[in-house]
Design goal:
about 75% helix; MetI-like fold; Carbohydrate ABC transporter permease; membrane; transport; MetI-like; transmembrane; 16 helices
Length: about 290
Amino acid sequence: MNLILNVVVAICALICVFPFAFVVILSFTDEKSLAYHGYRLIPEKWSTYAYEYLFQNGSQLLRSYGVTITVTVVGTVLSLLVIALYAYGISRSSFKYRSFFSFLALFTMLFNGGLVPTFIVVTQVLHLKDTLWALILPMAMNAFYIMIMRTFFKGLPDGIIESGKIDGASEFQIFARIVLPLSLPGLATIGLFCTLGYWNDWFNALLYIDNPDLVPLQSMLMRIESSMAFILQNAKNSGLGSVAASLPQETSRMAMVVLATGPIVLAYPFFQRFFIQGLTVGSLKE
């Protein structure tokens, strides 16, 4: 029975891993070979030209990686802090205004001011245009994550909170020393969502970033793809037919996927270890 379960799990794992592995293989395939023979698991001809084309702007690529990593780390930590504090406040029955702030968070899930007011607030009121904070603050709060953490905090035994109050701990001490260690599963889940959100974000850079030194990775890769598409569409009229023919159109897209998702894929097992460990942390001691 265990052998059958292991085989089933192995097959499911292979199904999950195979698409990304196939994309990696395609990114190392020669463009002409790909166009002639189609998508193959073992290419007729290998090539690294797609990566060479992308790394022609190597310094810009490294800067974009640095911007994305900085925004992801700072944004995730800030999001976890503000979301956990907000959710803990509205989860406590002793908080007088919990209904109002719960409604305030829920209301933003159903209605929002729209793109134009948001753009005006970020650029004209907060003056965040062409700063890293324009990539961090608009995504720092998420009402859905607040509701998830509020439900998680409500599930904590009241006896733990009361024991902290009896020992003379303040609300912040209870939150930092008792609630947070017991909330690692919820924090790990929200942290993973926030990390993926910040890492994959390109829309805020499109709106608020003009400085090329502050362009994140996803936005830079999109600009490269847009430039390539423009050259291909206007090759005949601009006399750039030979240049367009040499562009690694399909393989470069696969290389972009590898460059954009590779760090997250490699880092995820380490986060998963802490995530699984967090699932077993926290219990009442008799």
